[in-house]
Amino acid sequence: MTTSEIISTDVIIIGAGPVGLFAVFELGLLGLSSHLIDILDKPGGQCAELYPEKPIYDIPAWAVITGDDLTKRLLEQIAPFKPSFHFGQMAESLFKTENGEWEIVTDAGVKLRAKVVVIAAGGGSFVPKKPPIAEIEQYENKSVFYAVRKMANFADKKLVIVGGGDSALDWAINLQPVAKELVLVHRRDDFRAAPDSVEKMRHLVAEGKMRLVIGQVAALNGADGELSSIVVRDDAKQETSIDCNVLLPFFGLTMKLGPVANFGLNLHENLIKVDTEKFETNEPAVFAIGDINYYPGKLKLILSGFHEAALMAQAAFAYCRPDQKLRFQYTTSSSDLQKKLGV
Which of 85, 204, 238, 250 is deepest in the core (most CB within 10 A)? Predict the structure, then answer.
């Protein structure tokens, strides 16, 4: 395919995270085809990129499931509908054509047209907040990492985790069993994480299975991108040297809407405003579902995004098939839906 060719489909979905993937399923049940665009090089969104092995406890019917497994299950579920993916690309522009369709052009020059656009981009493009430590760049992706993609990569390592939020404590708890040594560093003895995580961390410290050091990382020591130790300085200017092979700073993420912010959609604090009937934006046939949207009472949960995807699909059908009447059916009793699912 050349960049001048135009790809036509029923629905263009921006974002291939869990909510975007489930939207494929809901649209597929109604006979609507989907193309997905994602800046990452694989499906799964933040679950796959930042927390592939982190347990998730609030997905219906799963007592516990990892981000990676959730992504695999969703891909298995939507396989009958044969969605097309455009990975490693960003949706740069959105405009309406003369015949009333929406056209999106990606930064790779791919042009897609559809009656409906669904923005399921999570918080947008995300980049980690980096700590203000001199020369940290020379260690990045060698011994300094801002995400854990495979726990096995940190087995038998001397780990230092920096931060006091959920990510820092969750990974301290999850990596402690595989690490050779683990030290948690935070600027104060007060944490923003879930109380249960704080309690588990303190229990591990009390048992001598990990250390807690209060202070801030002041310097890194090492050569050729490989750490040998770090220096932590407390409020009294006292310095402590900690041997380590790997530093994991969890200072949160900076979420950016990117080009989506220029699509002419009404925003609320960097989120896309939608109604609560169809999760449609101020632009007809442009929807926003998942963490990217805003409405009163919004909860940023994956299961909320799944609900939004189901209602969005019903409204999308009217735009894609205006001459057809939508008949609501259940997968448990509809032979038509079961045929589409291949069961």
Answer: 250
